[in-house]
Amino acid sequence: MVAIEVVDLALAYGELRAVDGVSLDVAEGEFVGILGPNGAGKTSTLELVEGLRRPDSGTVRVLGESPWPRNPRLLPRMGVQLQASSFFERLTAREQLRTFASLYAVSAGRADEWLERVGLVEKAATRVGDLSGGQAQRLSIACALVHDPELVFLDEPTAALDPQARRNLWDLLVGINEAGRTVVLTTHYMDEAETLCDRVAIMDRGRVLRFDTPAKLVRGLDAPTRITVAPGPDLERLRVVPGVGDVVATPDGTVLTTREPTLVLTGLAERDLLDGVQVHTGTLEDVFLDLTGREYRA
Ligand SMILES: Nc1ncnc2c1ncn2[C@@H]1O[C@H](COP(=O)(O)OP(=O)(O)OP(=O)(O)O)[C@@H](O)[C@H]1O
Predict the structure, then answer these.
(1) Which of 9, 43, 53, 158 to mutate to test the pocket of ligand 1 (most atoms within 8 A of CB)?
(2) Ligand 1 — pocket residues by CB below 6 A?
(3) Does 287 map to a domain?
(4) What CATH number has the domain bearing residue 265?
(5) What ipTM was predicted for this assembly?
(6) Region 260-277 average pLDDT
């Protein structure tokens, strides 16, 4: 079943085409990432899908319905975490979450369970205005998920989180997805997209450049493999290994590029040069560079 269907969506702010002909489909139960640098149009696209903005043109269907104008049938089925959350500043974290829960007829007890899931039990009695950026972000995620929606939208959910909190949130999102919920998130982080997402839409300048599984995106790359060995061996010994292209010495090791990694690894083994070997195939960063001609800067 299709959860989201977006066809030729466009939105301009004045002269700026923030969303410029985006088409996407998301299946029920899928985990999809929209990946791109600042200003790529990720948030604008998400807001159109969520029904928070009206598109200039194009169509959006969410769970078989149009999200715009605000569609009350859809609201309980969706959970939306925005980049900038507005809380009731004088409420405590627990009160804030219970207030959100009550809007969906979810019990206070279930709301409190969410404080635990996002690691905010110790901050339950802290006023929202006194939470750190990362804590506020986790609270906003709990508010988006407290009613157990079928479809979850998260806008850069790990942006303000420390590495441990980021890992914890990844686990939480994987759990939700494995329980059958559809998840769509935007992110700057390549590793996040690669780790979490079934499919990734790479966005730049209002357009979706590619939309595929991380593995297929990388496989489609026409990039050589890089093999690094520990510093030390004479560069000439490495240059003559069959299949080796460039050889570059760096402080961390000597980097060999090749289009025949198996041949090179065999040659290195025969010469007893495998010390500290690391093999780097393409990453989504390479895919971005390949598609745009620009380095990816999150
Ligand atoms: N309300 C607005 N009015 C005018 N321009 C806007 C508005 N919202 C966004 N933009 C512009 O539209 C473009 C796309 O913005 P958007 O927030 O969708 O990108 P993004 O990929 O989510 O970026 P980021 O990763 O920085 O959040 C940017 O150039 C931004 O400056």
Answers:
(1) 43
(2) 13, 16, 18, 36, 38-44, 188
(3) no
(4) 3.30.70
(5) 0.96
(6) 92
